[in-house]
Model the fold of this input.
Amino acid sequence: MNRTMQHDVSSTQELLLPPVGRRSFLKVVLQATAAIGLSATAGRQIAEAVERGVRPSVIWLHFQECTGCSESLLRTSHPDIAELILENISLDYHETLMAAAGVQAEEVLKQAMKANAGRYILVVEGSIPTKIDGQYMKIAGKTGIAMLKEVAESAALVVAIGSCASWGGIPSADPNPTGAVGVPEILKGKKVATLPGCPANPYILLGTVFQFAVMGTLPELDEKGRPKFAYGRTIHEHCPRRAHFDAGRFASKFGDQGHRLGYCLYKLGCKGPSTHANCSVSHFCEVVDAWPIGLGHPCFGCTEKDIAFRIPLFNTTNIDRPTPPDTYPEVNPVQGDISAWATGAAGLVAGALLGGSYMTAKYLNKQEGTPDAGNTPPPDAERKQEKKS
Ligand code: SF4
Done:
């Protein structure tokens, strides 16, 4: 970040990085967009637009959190997401990554907001304390509530990254001493894309931000503001341990034989059946199996407001959609609206036709002198004859 966040306010829009080769850049963006489920055409469109110089201005605010979402973003290694975003978005303000501090940092924020008013993307990490009018947190003399409202006012898009910013996360766990809430609670009436996760998968952020910057649209969101491309299905639906669940093979204790053999973790409290997320298909830091279930720990439901930090870690949860969803082909599909009478009549006609064909074939065979024409015994008679002999 220090490479991009300049101490001098006037140079906050400049990036002093060497250009990436066209081929490698396209490859990186195509990999990233494919990883989040966008089509190759959309990926190419985005890559070319970014290459043409479309660099969305991003202002990143931190409230109550552990900075895990930023850490996750920066640790992505293949493709090098940190390099990608530092070279292709204009990350104009990020408190934990910028070199500036104090008054200088506040000037950077003001400058970035002024220069890109109505066009910048506001990314928020962390929950916002609301008790005692938000006095639990102050930045530059302002409460988190005031700061969020002020910066969001001129933003083209607000993205809440991580579970804390989406709905409160860890700081909102009982007894929620600071009255922590997510961004949508503070910015009621303003569209907020929520990307929950503890941490959130950085590719989801990348896909959402680039689609908005290049196409001016947001991915389709669910009723909780989550992009459906990433949160449309439960972990359980595409879990690599699902075959064990279906076959009734479970780990019952950490370290038991079932656990060692990679059996289903449901009995250990896995919340995968009720958790909408794509961790099972988009692992962290591009390391194979770098996600809870991949490492032998039950999913704890971090993308769900009513599960993570609400239901105890090792308690079991309800199973959503235990039967195939409506979108699947039916097991016993209705074959049409033919009445019983019509079915019976059709049966009679078919029977008559078959009977007629049989008698005709028998007659013709006789005419042609076929050795056993018309004399082939039915299977039962054949068996009786075999017994006698
Ligand atoms: S219960 Fe958990 S571990 Fe088992 S198949 Fe479902 S998501 Fe995977």
In short: The first strand starts at residue 57 and ends at 62. The beta strands are 57-62, 90-94, 121-125, 128-129, 138-139, 142-143, 157-161, 180-181, 192-195.
